[in-house]
Amino acid sequence: MPKPILWVRVFLNPLILKKGLSNIKVAAPSGLGDQSLRFGILKDMPELHSIINKGLASISAEESTVIRNKYMNVRYEHGISKTDIARGLAIIGAAFGLVIGGIVFWNVLLGRTVAKRTADLNRVNQHLTAEIAQRTSTENALRASRDYLDNLTRSMADIVVSVKMPERTIEWVNDAIRTLGYEPREIIGRTTEFIYARHDDFVAMGRLIQASIKTDKNDVVTVMMFRKKNGEIFPAEITMSFFEDQGRIVNVTAIIRDISDREERERQINFHQQQLKALAAKLTMSEERERRRVATELHDHVGQSLAIARIQLASAHKSISDAACTLLLEEVSRTLLEASQQTRHLIFDLSTPAIQELGLQAAIKDWLNEKMPPHGIAAKLVDHTEGATALLLTEDEAALLFRHTRELLTNVIKHAKADTITVEVQTTANEIHISVQDNGVGFDVADIGGNGKAQGRFGLFSITESMVDMGGRLEIDSAPGQGCRAVLRLPVRKE
Fold first, then answer.
1. Mean pLDDT along residues 71-82
2. Measured between alpha carbons, how far is 115 from 95 in angstroms, rounded to an integer?
3. How far is it, in rounded angstroms, from Cα 12 to Cα 361?
4. 394 and 489 share a domain?
């Protein structure tokens, strides 16, 4: 029995063409492979097989196409073969395997990345946890410090105010502002001008702040006049601290202290000090007058009596021939001479009558001649006042100038280790100058400072204060190893 495809092609094709069935196609599979044209030969005509094959072999491709199109216009659509299915399944399997492998590889990479990211997140989390704990601790410490500072400032009697710069507006103030009659909430946000006594004080404070900023000062202390809410004006000491941000002053913290009581106490102290100085000056003058009186008494009475006694002993000595009496009289004379010399030294220590008799310069010269030779010091007096216009010195002024000159010379003897001293006296239009210069070891003038007591310079301090009381001054020029020059300057009246 012929195959179905061949049968359709050979026997049905004319009928299909005749009926006009152009859309008929063979879709069922067959076992004939892909050969589209077949000849069937009976087994009893084998020779026909060779003849037909030779004939078919002689047909060209074009002729074969023409014959095919003429006799075989039925379309044959191949179905999906098992090979194609297997190949497709293999391709699909390979693709699926690649996809699965990619997914597995991606999952492995993703797992490693997730593990790494998880470890990183754990480390970051630990770091953040530690940082949060530290920040929490810091915030607690800051909160405790802030609370402590707040309690401290609120308990202070002084006014503490925080001022924003450059607007100079109040940001914060403690409860002590109530001493001015204000509540803290009243003045927050206001400029500080309202608490100054005058607008000029407010401007002056601004200039002071700017000047301090230019000179890189971090703290400033000054005194200004302030005004309370009721109009009362009082002096206040202001201590300011500056705070910077990126090189710019952004805040000023000021402590304001009412110093009315302190200034009153200072005025009382100054008043008492002036009274004490006046009393000390009076005591000094009284002491000097008493010294002069005692010196005068010693000079006029004791000294004269001793001199007369020696004269009388000399007369008695001439009239007595007894050797024993003569020796006795000579011993008494020597004793009287020693007493006379001691009395003379005592007179010079107390005061010198030469001030009243011969003047200040003569008294200084006598003192130099009397006191310097025993100490091996060459001393001289240079008087530049000869021929100059006479200057009037009161008895007290002359006595104090002599006393201070003597004190300066005594300091040279005790401390300077000098071998030369020069005293100069000169006058200007309205002053008298007495300078004492030596070639001794000298000293640092800065060591005098204060009251001079701590440095063993109380004598210089006393001279300074006394000269100031008289309207004059003491000037000292000295340095270690360069000797010393001290000048007494006192205004005087022309004759």
1. 58
2. 29
3. 174
4. yes
